[in-house]
Specification:
Radius of gyration of chain A: 24 Å
Order of helices and strands of chain B: HHHHHHHHHHHHH
Shape of chain B: globular
Number of domains of chain B: 2
CATH superfamily of the largest domain in chain B: MetI-like
CATH superfamily of chain A: MetI-like
Number of domains of chain A: 1
Helix content of chain A: over 70%
Structural class of chain B: mainly alpha
Strand content of chain B: under 5%
Helix content of chain B: over 70%
Number of strands of chain A: 0
CATH architecture of chain A: Orthogonal Bundle
CATH topology of the largest domain in chain B: MetI-like fold
Structural class of chain A: mainly alpha
CATH class of chain A: Mainly Alpha
Distance between the termini of chain B: 16 Å
Largest sheet of chain A: none
CATH class of the largest domain in chain B: Mainly Alpha
Order of helices and strands of chain A: HHHHHHHHHHHHH
CATH topology of chain A: MetI-like fold
Number of helices of chain B: 13
Oligomer: heterodimer
Strand content of chain A: under 5%
């Protein structure tokens, strides 16, 4: 049999094919299918659909809510990425110091990352809840401030949403950057010390440049992770009040499963997919750069 | 990673003793702030789960329970569907874990031990597919599962989770397999072992750290996933923990005394897994993410 001879010569196929097939079938195929749906008028409330060309994209471009959603998305993603990176670096530097209790502290710092998103949403909802029950109102009461209804104010809602997502996201930065800090050769710091560099100069001219590839990878991972994140926005604020925290990824869910406009949701998803592909290309470039640097 | 862990310790030792002490004090103050920000919300929920309902609804809000009670846990288990949700979550997670680790490690071994055309292209393609989030695929997932008659089944969740977790499992495990010398395989093959046998009895037992790291990530992902089950499997009988909690507590929660206990019960398994897996995590994750 030629087939059996073929398989005998290409034994690796037995090993890789199951994985390749299931991954292609359940990630690549749906992605392509979603792009196709964005060119139809598929609606979950109607059985039939047909090809409509770029109609949905025109509708998206002229969507009255689009400027607000895009603005929310930029504020949300931008703040989360900056805070995650900055706090991640500071905490990674702190946890890289040889101090007693460091191991325990690392475990504590990484803890938020394992808490399920839905629990984080529930927790922060209770924490800030508008009624008198949330402990945050008691805490600000100690400072003589009156209780407030945290989630009825657009700015406060967005701030709490960002805080919750950062609270959960900083550990990933810590993990990546601690990994990076540990690959920086000690000799570099010794050389800097001999040259009379201050702490600040050592950070500025040794640590940051050495960490640069990891920091950039962290930027990409945080950007794509936050852009695609639905769990906490959906369960914590649900886009409210009055759309003040509705971000692009949440619009996919709302258009698809509340408005039932599958084609429109797919159009938004296709836009996000394109942004993701762009980020991925940058990510792969960075990985190559990093490997060439040999760190 | 341990060889250079003290890289940031100052090489000079000429600073004065009091200066060092003051600096250490600052670091420990920062430790305290960090611990407070991380642990305060968690502790509030944990302690809240032991308060009696009257105290939970009282004002001003307390932090430490006045008297410890297990009433809330009792009520949650008896009066809500949380046990069903947790059971569904556990079933989906266990099957996802088994399928992902089996299919993923076998593929990783294939990628590690053979050279073939388009090998790197295939590996990078898997990495790119990993970066397509479920958010983007959520409409197609719904349509595909509807078409296959798998809406509101746990099988649908296991299928999707397995597919989305295989790529990073392959990357992490290939990294480990690459560090094991090929002479090991060759010796066993000369002794008459099949390649599958070599993989199962020799390579896999040596890769337990990698397997733990990958396994924990798969566990965490399947346990916590929210959007996919919310759309694909939201009927009461098959709802997982995240969907159940979301529909139960909705947007404004008034059943605090249930919420605290339910949150603790839903999070405990991941925390326990984290405590077991954490020593492999920082190294495993960093190496997986950097490749």
């Amino acid at each position: 049999m030629t087939l059996s001879r073929f398989l005998n010569r290409h034994q690796y196929l037995f090993f890789i094919m199951p994985a390749v097939l299931i991954v292609l079938g359940l990630t690549a195929y749906p992605a392509a299918y979603g792009v196709w749906v964005s060119f139809t008028n598929l609606h979950f409330a109607y059985p039939d659909s047909r090809f409509v060309g770029f109609d949905n994209y025109v509708r998206l471009a002229t969507w009255p809510a689009l400027p607000r959603v895009l603005f929310n998305t930029v504020i949300f993603v931008g703040s989360v990425v900056v805070l995650q990176l900055g706090l991640g670096l500071l905490i990674a530097l702190l946890l890289n110091k040889a101090l007693r209790g460091r191991q325990l502290m690392r475990s504590i710092a990484i803890l938020p990352w394992v808490i399920p998103g839905i629990i984080i949403a529930l927790m922060f909802q209770q924490f800030f809840n508008g009624s008198r029950l949330g402990i945050m109102n008691t805490v600000i009461g100690y400072f003589g401030l009156p209780s407030r209804s945290w989630f009825s104010d657009p700015t406060q809602s967005m701030a709490i949403l960002i805080f919750a997502v950062v609270w959960r996201g900083v550990p990933l930065s810590i993990i990546l950057q601690l990994g990076g800090l540990q690959t920086i050769a000690r000799e570099l710091y010794e050389a800097a010390a001999i040259d009379g560099a201050s702490r600040w100069q050592a950070l500025r001219y040794v640590t940051i440049p050495s960490l640069k590839p990891i920091l950039l990878i962290n930027v990409i991972m945080a950007t794509s992770g936050t852009l695609n994140h639905v769990d906490i926005p959906l369960a914590l604020t649900g886009g409210g009040p009055a759309g003040a925290t509705e971000v692009l990824a949440l619009s996919i869910y709302k258009q698809g499963f509340e408005v039932l406009d599958a084609a429109y949701a797919s159009t938004i998803a296709t836009v996000i997919l394109l942004i993701n592909l762009l980020l991925t290309i940058v990510y792969l470039r960075l990985l190559r750069m990093k490997n060439e640097l040999g760190s | 990673m341990n060889s250079v862990r003290d890289a940031s310790r100052p090489a000079r030792r000429d600073s004065s003793r009091s200066g060092v002490a003051a600096e250490t004090l600052v670091y420990y103050a920062l430790y305290a702030v960090l611990a407070l920000v991380v642990l305060f919300p968690l502790a509030w929920v944990l302690l809240g789960s032991f308060k009696n309902p009257g105290e939970i609804f009282a004002y001003p809000t307390t932090f430490f329970p006045r008297d410890f009670t297990l009433t809330n846990y009792n009520d949650v288990v008896r009066r809500t569907a949380l046990p069903t949700y947790l059971y569904n979550t556990a079933i989906v997670t266990v099957f996802t874990l088994v399928f992902t680790l089996i299919i993923g490690t076998i593929a990783a071994y294939g990628f590690s031990r053979w050279n073939f055309p388009f090998k790197n292209t295939t590996m990078v393609t898997l990495l790119i597919l990993q970066l397509i989030p479920s958010t983007v695929n959520i409409i197609p997932y719904y349509l595909m599962m509807n078409w296959m008659g798998l809406l509101n089944t746990r099988i649908a969740l296991v299928l999707i989770y397995t597919a989305t977790h295989i790529p990073f499992t392959i990357w992490i495990m290939k990294g480990y397999f690459d560090t094991l010398p090929r002479s090991l395989d060759e010796a066993a093959v000369i002794d008459g072992c099949s390649m599958f046998r070599v993989f199962w009895s020799i390579i896999l037992p040596l890769s337990l750290p990698g397997l733990s790291a990958a396994g924990f990530l798969v566990f965490l992902g399947s346990w916590s996933e929210f959007l996919v089950p919310l759309v694909i499997a939201n009927s009461r009988e098959v709802a997982v923990m995240s969907v159940g909690l979301y529909s139960f507590f909705g947007m404004d929660t008034t059943a605090y005394h249930y919420a605290f206990a339910a949150s603790v019960m839903s999070t405990a398994p991941v925390i326990v897994a984290y405590l077991f897996a954490q020593r492999y995590l920082v190294s495993g994750l960093a190496s997986g993410a950097e490749k």
